[in-house]
């Protein structure tokens, strides 16, 4: 369970929901997309994921598993099989300067009250955590089931990839993700988000419902609600990262057929991975079955 807090943080940062116009639903109602053309000898695949779910809601569609089996390498946002990356992730949730030392006495008192009232802990227990460690509490509170019933989508895919002896890679380093997170959420911003824990509970419920319907248009901007993510945070957490990934993906696909698994919010929009790949000359189309 040690890594659930760490991976759970990524869950809420990477999955978003928005309203869909009826005429667009059928055209893009898929969590799995095939990438072809532009000189590729074999197709690659892009899967939008719901990072963290309760076992009762969890399902990986057969077409997703078939696409994974047809691919040569499995590519996640971060390569969790790299020991150095896991070490970096552990450091990501710790801080050299205590939280209480970064806040005024009044702010520290307010944070302590929030943690006691809503998160079953207190500032004394969390004082050596980073702001990212604090934010992780939100995602874990939002999941409506015990930790023993939590499923991590990428981890299930990773287990299958390793069983099939596939190469595993990552689109970014933990250090890159840390920079994006720090740019988006400073400590006081995280405290503001902690106050909105119930909003995240609603978010995750709607998000899981949309994901199960493969409604990727709806896995895009609930998180872009002004109360949760402003324009600067969206740029740091989604747009900039999408552009970095879209620069790396062509070389990976050229070498071998790749299966990319990224948070569902990264797929759609003008700066989503799908559109960025299309702008590079690739054909990217939804997969209904394989």
TrEMBL record:
<dbReference type="InterPro" id="IPR002816">
    <property type="entry name" value="TraB/PrgY/GumN_fam"/>
</dbReference>
<keyword id="KW-0378">Hydrolase</keyword>
<protein>
    <submittedName>
        <fullName>TraB/GumN family protein</fullName>
    </submittedName>
</protein>
<keyword id="KW-0479">Metal-binding</keyword>
<keyword id="KW-0732">Signal</keyword>
<keyword id="KW-1133">Transmembrane helix</keyword>
<keyword id="KW-0812">Transmembrane</keyword>
<dbReference type="InterPro" id="IPR040230">
    <property type="entry name" value="TIKI1/2-like"/>
</dbReference>
<keyword id="KW-0645">Protease</keyword>
<feature type="signal peptide">
    <location>
        <begin position="1"/>
        <end position="22"/>
    </location>
</feature>
<keyword id="KW-0325">Glycoprotein</keyword>
<keyword id="KW-0482">Metalloprotease</keyword>
<keyword id="KW-0472">Membrane</keyword>
<dbReference type="Pfam" id="PF01963">
    <property type="entry name" value="TraB_PrgY_gumN"/>
</dbReference>
């Amino acid at each position: 369970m040690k890594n659930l807090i760490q991976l759970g943080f990524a869950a809420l940062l990477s999955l978003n929901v928005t309203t869909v116009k009826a005429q667009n639903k059928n055209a893009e109602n898929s969590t799995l997309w095939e990438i072809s053309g532009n000189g590729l000898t074999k197709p690659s695949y892009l899967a939008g994921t719901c990072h963290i779910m309760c076992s009762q809601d969890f399902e990986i569609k057969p077409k997703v598993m078939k696409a994974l089996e047809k691919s040569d390498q499995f590519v996640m946002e971060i390569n969790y099989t790299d020991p150095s990356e896991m070490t970096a992730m552990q450091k990501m949730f710790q801080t050299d300067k205590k939280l209480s030392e970064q806040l005024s006495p009044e702010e520290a008192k307010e944070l302590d009250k929030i943690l006691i009232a809503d998160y079953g802990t207190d500032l004394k227990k969390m004082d050596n955590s980073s702001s990212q460690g604090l934010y992780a509490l939100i995602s874990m509170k939002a999941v409506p089931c015990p930790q023993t019933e939590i499923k991590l989508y990428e981890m299930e895919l990773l287990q299958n990839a390793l069983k099939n002896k596939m190469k595993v890679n990552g689109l970014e380093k933990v250090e890159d993700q840390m920079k994006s997170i720090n740019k988006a959420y400073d400590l006081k911003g995280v405290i503001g988000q902690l106050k909105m824990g119930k909003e995240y509970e609603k978010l995750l419920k709607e998000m899981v419902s949309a994901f199960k319907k493969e409604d990727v248009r709806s896995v895009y901007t609930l998180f872009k609600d002004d109360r949760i993510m402003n324009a600067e945070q969206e740029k740091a957490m989604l747009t900039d990262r999408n552009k970095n990934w879209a620069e790396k993906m062509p070389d990976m696909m050229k070498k071998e057929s790749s299966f990319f698994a990224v948070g569902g919010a990264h797929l759609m929009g003008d700066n989503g991975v799908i559109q960025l790949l299309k702008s590079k000359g690739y054909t990217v189309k939804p997969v209904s079955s394989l």
